[in-house]
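thought: user wants a sequence for this fold. calling inverse folding tool.
action: design(structure=
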């Protein structure tokens, strides 16, 4: 298994010594179908004058009206904007060391005309590419395990990419993917733009989203868990124990999974006739630090909650820390329910009651769908939801008032 950040993929042409050699380690660059040759002797780009910046289409195929019929190379974009090819490469790959005005000019040309890198190979590589928004905890390890299982069964390598926290891949991401030409892509907790989805489909590279962070474009295939049911069962469990002051610490508001879990929470409260106090609803970002910050604030309220439902296990760990700081015991003074059922949930003191979502199975399902699409097989359904299940451990109990019979 290899790890690669998408912004660091090789993109240069093959050295002269590699040309014409069948077993050369670096393949020769090829033209995209339907595009004329842009390379002259020695690999230099033809049709581009470094001093003529009046049109971004210099050297590019043009239609009857003089407009471009295909995307532009980095050299053509650089010549038009008046910057170096290296600067264009930095913008395409999401680098931060570019002046804002320069970045805006380059991005404007790319949006208007497109940017195209030469393909490395005509045949797909025997590789599955697993793309994360960021990699930081055991949630991501479970996803990797699931994809690795399917990759091994089909004798495919696995490459990991990280978007460095970005919700949507940058401008150069698709070009890098087209260069690598993997068998397929699994995107985790991020979302593709309509343009990116269309580019992948046009090149025959299948993709499936896992827990998409936003509405998938044009019915893109996706896999998730029954998040609404999970939020419902977690909250019902607390209500059945006798809790009425129940707080919820959510994930990001733009995350579909988090919104569904909170909707399940609200449904359970409304069905039981328990009002939802807005002061007890806190928006986090799935990190333990956020759980700690929000739990501290909740426990300082004049009427603090007797129970907290967190939309993932990491947030619950932060609640544990805040309770300890306040001198409260779990579950005697405060009940806590998480979501995910990651391995650390079994080893907390006390062990965490949480909603199990089958992360490895979700990832394996997504990888299987990608392989089926790569083989030209139609999917039985484009949206798959796997069942969640409440796992009751030792972090929940009736509130003190119930135990006293009041």
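)
observation: tool returned 406 residues.
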């Amino acid at each position: 298994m290899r790890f690669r950040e998408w912004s660091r993929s090789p993109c240069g042409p093959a050295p002269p010594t590699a040309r014409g050699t069948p077993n050369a380690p670096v393949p020769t660059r090829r033209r995209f179908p339907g595009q004329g040759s842009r390379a002259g002797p020695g690999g230099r780009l033809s049709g581009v004058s470094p001093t003529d910046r009046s049109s971004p289409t210099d050297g590019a195929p043009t239609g009857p009206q003089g407009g471009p019929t295909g995307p532009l190379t980095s050299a053509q974009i650089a010549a038009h904007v008046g910057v170096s090819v290296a600067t264009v490469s930095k913008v395409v790959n999401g680098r931060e060391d570019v002046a804002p005005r320069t970045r805006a000019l380059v991005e404007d040309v790319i949006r208007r005309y497109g940017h195209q890198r030469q393909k490395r190979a005509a045949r797909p590589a025997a590789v599955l590419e697993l793309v994360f928004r960021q990699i930081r905890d055991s949630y991501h390890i479970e996803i990797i395990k699931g994809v690795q299982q399917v990759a091994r069964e089909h004798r495919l390598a696995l490459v990991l990419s990280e978007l460095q926290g970005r919700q949507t891949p940058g401008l150069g991401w698709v070009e890098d993917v087209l260069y690598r030409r993997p068998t397929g892509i699994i995107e985790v907790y991020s979302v593709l733009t309509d343009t990116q989805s269309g580019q992948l489909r046009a090149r025959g590279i299948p993709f499936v989203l896992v827990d998409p962070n936003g509405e998938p474009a044009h019915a893109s295939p996706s896999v998730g868990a029954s998040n609404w049911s999970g939020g419902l069962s977690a909250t019902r469990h607390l209500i059945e124990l006798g809790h009425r002051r129940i707080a919820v610490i959510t994930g990001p508001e733009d995350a579909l999974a988090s919104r569904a879990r909170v909707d399940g929470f609200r449904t359970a409260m409304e069905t039981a006739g328990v009002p939802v106090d807005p002061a007890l609803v806190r928006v986090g970002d799935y990190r333990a630090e956020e759980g700690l910050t929000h739990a501290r604030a909740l426990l300082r309220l004049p009427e603090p909650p007797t129970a907290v439902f967190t939309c993932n296990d990491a947030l619950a760990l932060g609640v544990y820390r805040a309770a300890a700081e306040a001198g409260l015991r779990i579950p005697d003074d405060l009940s806590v329910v998480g979501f995910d059922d990651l391995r650390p949930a079994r080893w907390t003191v006390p062990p965490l009651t949480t909603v199990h979502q089958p992360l490895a199975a979700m990832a394996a399902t997504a990888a299987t769908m990608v392989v089926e699409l790569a083989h030209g097989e139609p999917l039985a359904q484009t949206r798959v939801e796997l069942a969640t299940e409440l796992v009751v451990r030792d972090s929940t109990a009736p509130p003190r008032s119930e135990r006293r019979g009041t």
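thought: summarizing for user.
answer: Here is the designed sequence. The chain is about 35% helix and 15% strand.
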